[in-house]
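Lab channel / #folding
Pinned by the channel admin:
"Please post every new chain as: sequence first, then the C-alpha cells as a reply. Keep commentary short and put observations after the output so the thread stays searchable."

First post following the new format, from NK:
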Amino acid sequence: MDRRDFLRTTILGGAAIAVAPMSFSAPDMATRPTTKSGKLNLKFEPYELKLRHAFNLAKNQRTSTPGVQVQLEYDGLVGYGEASMPPYLGESVDSVTKFLGSLDLSQFSDPFRIEDIHAYMDSVTPNDRAAKASVDIALYDLLGKIMGQPWYKIWGLNPDNAPNTSFTISYDADPEEMRKKIEETAPFKVIKIKMGVGHDKETVEAFRKFSDVPICVDANQGWDDKEHALEMCNWLADQNCLFVEQPMPKEMFEETAWVRERSPLPIIADEFLQRLPDVRRAAEAYDGINIKLMKSTGLHEAHKMATLARALGMKVMLGCMTETSCAVTAAAQLSPLVDWADLDGNLLIANDIFDGIKIVDGKVTIPDRPGIGVVPLT
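Reply from TO:
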C-alpha cells in the first residue's frame, strides 16, 4: 500500500488492537467525533528507512534500517509513534509486530495511566524495548493532544535551553563519497564522527581539512584494548573533541573504568546503557549517559533516566537511531534537560514521512504543537 495512505486514512472504532498491517488515516486533530469509544486502539505497519549514505560502523555496514510506524487512537484523537530497529538492538519487524499484535490495550479506558500501561507492557515481555517505545511515543503524542500542549511545556522546560545537535558522519573509502559527507556538515556546529573501523585518525584529519568546529566521537564499542582507547582519547583531546562515546565493548566494564580515570575527555555510555536500572551502574565507569528512546522504551523512562543521571552528577546526552521525524521530535521534547544532543536521525534518511523538529543554525528547535509536535507529510 502507499505509505501516505497509511498516514491519511481514517482510524475507525472497533477492535482495540490490529494484529496485522492495515489501511487507516488520522482524523483532523482539532476535532473529535460525537461518538466516543473510550478505548485505546492501536494500529501499526512496517516501514523501512532508507539511509542517504551507507553507515560504516565498527561492527557492521548498512544502507537501511527496519522500522514500524504506529498510530494510537482514543476518542478521535491520534497519537503517532515508531519503532526503529538497528541490528544491535536485537529486534526486527517480525518481533515488533508480534509484540504489538499481542497487546490488549482495550483494558485501559484512561490513557493517562502511563505507569499502568508500561507495567502491562513489561509484563508481556521483559525486552522488546523499541516495540514498547513505539507505543509510548504514540501515547505521549495522544496525551499531549488531549491536553493541548507540547510535552516540553507540560514538563515545564524552556525550549531556548535546547542544545545544538551534532550531525553524524562515518568513514568511507571512496574519497568522493567522503567529501560529500563532510560537505553536508556545513550547517552544524558540532559533528559526530563514527569510529572503531580502522580509519579513525584519517577520518578526523580529513574532516579537519574542511572545518574546525567541535567534534564528538562514537567508537561504537570498536576499541578493545584499553591502552589504545586511552591513546585515542589523548589524541582526540588535541582535536577539539568534546567527549568519547562507548569507546570499548560494553562487557569490558573494568577496562572502561580504567580509561575513564585517565582520559582527558568525558566517557559516555551508549550500548552499555539500556534502561533506568543501568544508570547507577553506569556511574561507576562512565561520566555520562546517552539516552535513546528505542533503548529506554520511550519518553516515560527516558525522563526518569535523565533525572537520575543528574542526581548522580552525570552528564546527559540525548540520542536517537536512524528514525523519522516522529521519534526524533519526540526525543527533542526532552532536549532542554540535557548537555548534548545527537538528534539527526531524521536527517540521515531519504524517506521521512513527518514534519517536526527543525535544526536552526545548528540548534534543536522544538515545534510548538500539542503532543510530540509532528504532523504527517502530505
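NK: The chain has 13 helices and 17 strands.
TO: also worth noting, Confidence is low (pLDDT under 50) at residues 1-35.
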